[in-house]
Amino acid sequence: MPWTIPDKGEGDNDIQSILFQEYLDVLVAGISGLDAVLSGCAVTGNGDMSPAVAAGVVTSNGAAKAVTAGDVTIGTADATHPRIDLVVVNSAGTKAVRAGTAAAAPKPPARTANDVVLAAVYVPAGDTTIATTQVTDLRVLRLVALPGYQLIRADVDRTLTSNTNVQAIFNNPTNGRLTLPTGFYKFEGMLIVTAMSGTSGNALINPLGAGTATIASWLWNIHGLDNTTPGSVADDDSAFYQTAATSASAFVAGTGTAMRARFNGSFEVTVAGTLIPSIQLVTAASAVIQDGSFFMVERLGDVDLVSIGAWD
Questions:
Q1: Is-contact 177 274, C-beta < 8 A?
Q2: Where are the domain boundaries for CATH 2.80.20 in the chain?
């Protein structure tokens, strides 16, 4: 259970039942949404001095970071006195251990700025194995820590590399990448691409791109036009998809040098990870993503969400 201080007699030692100031600071940072856990990241004993950290997502200084599953190493126990260490995810999104100071009455160490604290580990004198009973869960779970809408947009024209590879649509911030916890999401976007090749064909659109999230239950619609000069609304092509990507040409292939697209839909993130909205040109060209193009996504609930409101 997240952020739980054991009662006396519940842990390996009653020192684990002390409510330290550092624990309260962790709670405040988590409740604020600044340094919190969005999903996963439980710490458990592993039969040695390397407890296991589950995969998950945290927000450090308000920025989401994907955390891979793996072990962290607790340093050699003091021969005489116990110690309290903190297992954290640092501001770079890397798992780390902040070692405390061994003492007759130990206290946890201070965090480094924007550490997301996952657990406190009680390390008795001479210890050689970390059991789960020595781990105090300090995760502050905040599924709504991130803004409801998360948006990326081109505020200046962005020229693509002239190739037929999958490319991120946006490059400011640099990677055009968003880390998402598990849940049910809706998304939408609008895109204008100019300076495309005049050869017949346009481009594939893929909201996931080279992202690492495992996504299911895709249902989305895209409509737009392959034409240098936009025609009437009646000229628009439209298609529905239950996969991450459109066909190689999202719209009926034409020889125009521009493409306009609007899309919206929903999906489930079943394993937390990243999303990189992407495009793949049919014919290589130094095509330009026009200023004002955007993509946004909103988390509506857990993956088992079936309704919002007073449905019966």
A1: yes
A2: 14-137
SS3 141: strand
CA dihedral 160, 161, 163, 164 (to 10 degrees): -40
The yes-or-no verdict on residue 56 having pLDDT over 50 is yes
Domain covering 14-137 assigned CATH 1.20.120 in the classification: no
Cα–Cα nearest to 18, from 95, 105, 94: 105
Asked whether the predicted pLDDT for residue 193 surpasses 50, the reply is yes
User: Measured between alpha carbons, how far is 194 from 287 in angstroms, rounded to an integer?
Assistant: 6
Confidence of residue 145 (pLDDT cuts 50, 70, 90): very low
Pairwise CA distance, residues 210 & 93, whole Å? 19
Pairing between β-strand 52-53 and β-strand 70-71 as defined by DSSP bridges: antiparallel
DSSP state of 152: E
What pTM did the predictor assign? 0.68
CATH of domain 149-301: 2.60.120
Q: What are phi and psi of 263, to 5 degrees?
A: -145, 155
What backbone phi and psi angles, to 5 degrees, belong to 14? -65, -15
Instruction: Give per-residue pLDDT as tens, 81-108.
Output: 999 999 999 999 999 999 999 999 999 9
Cα separation of 112 and 91, whole Å? 9
Residue 298: count of CB within 10 angstroms of its CB: 17
Over residues 250-287, the pLDDT tens digits come to 998 888 899 999 999 999 999 888 899 999 999 999 99
Distance of alpha carbon 237 from alpha carbon 219, whole angstroms: 17
